[in-house]
Amino acid sequence: MTGRHRTAAVAATLTVVAGAGAAYWSLFSSYSQLLGPFPHRGRTGEKVVALTFDDGPNEPYTSQIADILLAASAPATFFQVGQCARRHPEVTARLLREGHVIGNHSLTHTMRRCLRHGEQRQETVATQAILTGISGRRPALYRPPWLLRTPSLFRVLAEQGLHPVAGVFCHAFEVFQPDPARIARRALAKVRPGTILIFHDGFDARGGNRAHTVAAVATVVNTLSDLGYRFVTVDELLGVPAYQDDPDDLHRSVGDDGPDRRSPVGDSARKEPL
Ligand SMILES: [Zn+2]
Questions:
Q1: How many CB atoms are closer than 10 A to CB 31?
Q2: Domain boundaries, the chain
Q3: What is the Å distance from ligand 1's center to 149 Cα?
Q4: CB-based neighbours (< 5 A) of ligand 1, an ion
């Protein structure tokens, strides 16, 4: 290979790597807004944090987290998988009773069903029906599995009046359940005013042991309380509705200011204390 050919090969390789990196950033990153608005934090200087829990309900871990949050009077947001909510509707109902917000996190949490419009739509519609059946209220918040989004997903969410929500992962390897102290330490290092922190009370749609996450959550809640942080739900933090007013209205666009739109953090307009 001549020097010129070698240079061309290196340039081509770098282009492919850069392209793959950019694609990954656009599709999975907490921070990319390239495909559409995807808030990962609230814009506030107040010491508030939104704890969020994905992939549940998954027993006994979701109930254990609910116990910790209840003791601390800490409302949180649970992005639930439709199949899991169907398995444990009583847990979803308890979370709602105790002032937590429930959001949509797909029906099956499978990668192959997160890529095309038709399947994305089936996943979100079915889960909206399950969660609405349990709570009587139609969720307005959606978090995609693995934060994976495509242009067609944004169209599906707009059709269904769902507001996409990102966040920052508490620990890159939480799925492997490292030591609770490590999860807590990493999570606490990421908290700033307005952070949306992502934990997992389940694992995809399969459940799994989340004992180390539960222990880490106890540490995180106690430490943040000691530091003067207040816990808020995602809708309150972002100033968007948690639920859609009319259960039959599937056509409100994302970001639409519905009549139940809450004031963003700073107005201290929390509807109901925990
Ligand atoms: Zn998930």
A1: 12
A2: 1-30, 48-238
A3: 13
A4: 54-55, 145
**For the chain, how many residues are written?**
274
DSSP 129-188: HHHHHHHSSEE-EE--GGG---HHHHHHHHHTTPEE---EES-TTGGG---HHHHHHHHH
Which amino acid is located at 155 in the chain? R
Residue type, 71: A
CA 273 to ligand 1 centroid distance, Å: 28
221-242 per-position pLDDT tens digit: 999 999 999 999 999 999 999 9
Measured CA to CA in angstroms, residue 258 lies from 99, 161, 202, 239 at distances of 21, 10, 31, 11
Ligand 1 center to residue 55 CA distance, Å? 5
The rounded distance, in Å, linking the Cα atoms of 96 and 197 is 20
Centre of ligand 1 to C-alpha 108, Å, is: 10
Cα–Cα distance measured from residue 142 to residue 164, given in angstroms and rounded to the nearest whole number: 5
Give phi and psi for 216, each to the nearest 5.
-65, -40
Ligand 1 center to residue 10 CA distance, Å?
Answer: 37
* Span from the CA of 143 to the centroid of ligand 1 (angstroms): 8
State pTM to two decimals: 0.83
- Three-class DSSP category at 118: helix
Between CA 51 and CA 59, with CA 56 as vertex, the angle to 5 degrees is: 110
Q: Does domain 48-238 have CATH number 3.20.20.370?
A: yes
Pairing of strands 168-169, 195-200: parallel
The rounded Å distance from CA 173 to ligand 1 centre is 13
pLDDT in tens, 84-108: 999 999 999 999 999 999 999 999 9
* CA distance linking residue 65 with residue 87, whole number of Å: 18
Distance from residue 110's CA to the centre of ligand 1 (Å): 9
